[in-house]
Each structure stands twice: as C-alpha cells, then as structure tokens.
C-alpha cells in the first residue's frame, strides 16, 4: 500500500499537507487554470499531449456500445473521441472533481456538437458514485497524481469496472534517461512557472504541476499499486522517453 | 514520440479538413455512420483503422473487429478511388478484402465524389478577385504541366524508338510475338508428328 495512505498527511507538490485539505488545494489550482487549460497544454507540451492521448485511445479497445468513464476528464479531449467511437448505443461519462474544469469541458463538447451519449458528473475518484461492474473502460489522464489517496481511487475504479474491462492511466512519470531527466527538470522548474505567470498570471499552479509530477509514483511503483488493488496483466508503456507513461490493467 | 499516432493524427486532420470543404460530403459520410474499416498498406508497418461518424477518426487499433479489412499496395490506392475498380483489383489479386465490400465502395465514393469549390473557400480570406486569379493561375499551370509532360513523353518515345533505336517499335514486338507463337505451334505439330512416326516404327 502507498505509504501516504497510512498517515493523515499527504503531498501537495513538495509540501506536506493534511489529507483533508489537499482536495481543496488542488481544486484551487484547477479553478485558476481551467479557462486556459487547453491553451497551456498545447503550449507547454508543444502539442505532444495530443499524441499521448491518441496512443491512449489506440490502447483502449473501445467499440460501439461500450460504457466509458473518463475520470479527471478535464476539458474532454478523450471524451470527445470516445463519444464518436462508442456511438449512439454507448455512453461516455466525463467525470471531474473540479466543477470549473467540468464546465469548461461541457461547454467545449457541446460547442463541438458532441451531445446525446455524453454525461457529466462531478465526482471524487476515491469514492465513485457508480454501481459495481458498470464500465467497459476507465481512463484517467493526467489526473491520478492530484488524487489524495491513490490506492483508494484505484480500488474504487476496480470496483466500478466490469470483469473484462480495462483501466488506462496516462500520467507523467520518470524519464528513462538521466540526461533527459535533467533537461526535463530544468524545463519544469524554470520554464513552466514562467509561462504560467505570463499566460494565466499564475506561476504557483505551474510550480505545483512540476512538483506534483516529481512526487508521483514511478512506473514500477504505480504498476504495483494497480496490482495490489486487483488489476491483472498490468503493463506500462513509456512515452517520450518516460516523461509520460501509459499504464494498462484488466479486471477479470 | 509514437510516430504511428503522429501519422494517424495528421491523416485524420487532413481527411476531415478536406471533407469539411465539400458541403455534400456529410450526406455521403452518413452512409458510413457507425462503420469501421481497416486498411493495411504493404509499405507501412501499421494498419490504419477508420471509424466513421459525423467525421472520420483514424486509429492505430489492431484488436477490435471491423466491418471491412483491406490490404493493398500504396501504388494501387489511387485506383481505389473509383468504386468500380474494386472488383477488378480483387480479381487481379492486387487487393485483399475481407468483410463488407459496400463499406469499401462507400468510402471510395466519399473520396471520389469530393467537389470542392476552391475559389469560394480562398475568396473568404483573399477576396473574389485574388481568389479567381489564383485558381485560374493554378489551373493554367496544371494544364501546361500536363501538356509538357505529354510532349516530353512523346519526345522520349520517338527518340528511343526512331532516332536512337534503343527499343523496338510496338509493331515489331507484335510481329515478333506472332512469329514466336507460329514457331511454338509448328514445333508442337512437329513433335506430335514425330511421336506418331516413332509409334509406327515400333510396330
């Protein structure tokens, strides 16, 4: 089990805070960045986040009629695509703990004409408000590191996933090459906050982003955490040298 | 960076941009709604899966079932534009097709019947006069280039056939082929006659 689960304290970036206050602190970050979230994603990743998300969709095995939960779905990049792939008979639920992000995502999808098979739910990943064995696929992209109790969230995802269903976790991870890691650190701690200050007027949120990435479990630790809650055939695939990793696990 | 996803993204963007330029494409696309088609090009290591809805999504998914799966060479892709060619390509073993042939034909029709009013689209950014002149210029260049290529082809053909005599004239090849056929027939007759004589001599 994750060490953080056993105490009343957890990480918020490099700071140690009470578990009860992390959710509201993370909420503050995302309320601040929600309006320009997509622009900042494109700017900071140089558009590469779109390729990472494409890879996630290619590994999803989703097809017409499936029921998909896009957790921490933010501004709905994955949900938009899933909505077309599952068709009229399928269902996509875009869930996020943060109502600002959810509103931005809902407006964006509706403006694109994506309606009918997409529902929006404000939900905490640690206690998902869905029945057992309900979804064919759950995705959580760049969201797990913000969750206070990751083990509890993974267990909750396992519960609502159908037998035969799969979980995909797309998240920042640990670069495989030391030189890349150093360059990435330089970029994260010196460029990221400055761009955040320039575009959103908020350097602190992007400082948190950089710190939270470093505090997130590495590839093998996350794999172990998924296995601990019951996922089987857990594998991960490093993307862009391990800056991001896609973990995949099945419930049987 | 995953290159296949980059390629699929670029292709998806291009396909949907082009379809958006033709107001009638939605009607043809509606015929494919909900269908999935996989194309494996011999020159590419990964198959492309096309999922049709109000737009086209291009995936690198290889595990999910599709309505129609095709395998062919890039050089024959252009011939696929005409739905009437599909049967001929299958017969010539240039195209392997599994599943619903109608999906392949509808996709071919979707692309073949694209009718884009380039002048109209360019005029939104440049105004009517510049758009008209630009399109006229491009059409002229295209016509001239086509005519020059035809001329160049003819010059090379004449030079190779008549001046340098590097290759035989098509009529000479035809005549030679007929001579070979005659010789083959004569040899066959001679062989049969020889066999007949041998049989008689043995008796």
From TrEMBL, chain A:
The keyword NADP does not apply. PROSITE patterns: SAM_MT_UBIE, UBIE_1, UBIE_2. Pathway: Quinol/quinone metabolism; menaquinone biosynthesis; menaquinol from 1,4-dihydroxy-2-naphthoate: step 2/2; Cofactor biosynthesis; ubiquinone biosynthesis. InterPro entries: SAM-dependent_MTases_sf, UbiE/COQ5_MeTrFase, UbiE/COQ5_MeTrFase_CS. CDD domains: AdoMet_MTases. It comes from the Bacteria. Its EC number is 2.1.1.163, 2.1.1.201. One of its GO terms (biological process) is methylation. S-adenosyl-L-methionine binds at residues 75, 96, 124-125. GO terms for molecular function: 2-methoxy-6-polyprenyl-1,4-benzoquinol methyltransferase activity; demethylmenaquinone methyltransferase activity. It catalyses: a 2-methoxy-6-(all-trans-polyprenyl)benzene-1,4-diol + S-adenosyl-L-methionine = a 5-methoxy-2-methyl-3-(all-trans-polyprenyl)benzene-1,4-diol + S-adenosyl-L-homocysteine + H(+); a 2-demethylmenaquinol + S-adenosyl-L-methionine = a menaquinol + S-adenosyl-L-homocysteine + H(+). Pfam families: Ubie_methyltran (PF01209). It is an enzyme of class 2 (transferase). Keywords: Menaquinone biosynthesis, Methyltransferase, S-adenosyl-L-methionine, Transferase, Ubiquinone biosynthesis. Methyltransferase required for the conversion of demethylmenaquinol (DMKH2) to menaquinol (MKH2) and the conversion of 2-polyprenyl-6-methoxy-1,4-benzoquinol (DDMQH2) to 2-polyprenyl-3-methyl-6-methoxy-1,4-benzoquinol (DMQH2). Belongs to the class I-like SAM-binding methyltransferase superfamily. MenG/UbiE family. This is Ubiquinone/menaquinone biosynthesis C-methyltransferase UbiE.
UniProtKB/TrEMBL annotation, chain B:
Pathway: Cofactor biosynthesis; ubiquinone biosynthesis. PANTHER family: UBIQUINONE BIOSYNTHESIS ACCESSORY FACTOR UBIJ, UBIQUINONE BIOSYNTHESIS PROTEIN UBIJ. Keywords: Coiled coil, Cytoplasm, Ubiquinone biosynthesis. It comes from Bowmanella yangjiangensis. SUPFAM superfamilies: SCP-like. The lineage of its organism: Bacteria, Pseudomonadati, Pseudomonadota, Gammaproteobacteria, Alteromonadales. This is Ubiquinone biosynthesis accessory factor UbiJ. Residues 15-112 form the SCP2 domain. It comes from the Bacteria. Belongs to the UbiJ family. HAMAP family: UbiJ. Its main location: cytoplasm. Pfam families: SCP2. The keyword Iron does not apply. InterPro entries: SCP2_sterol-bd_dom (IPR003033), SCP2_sterol-bd_dom_sf (IPR036527), UbiJ (IPR038989).
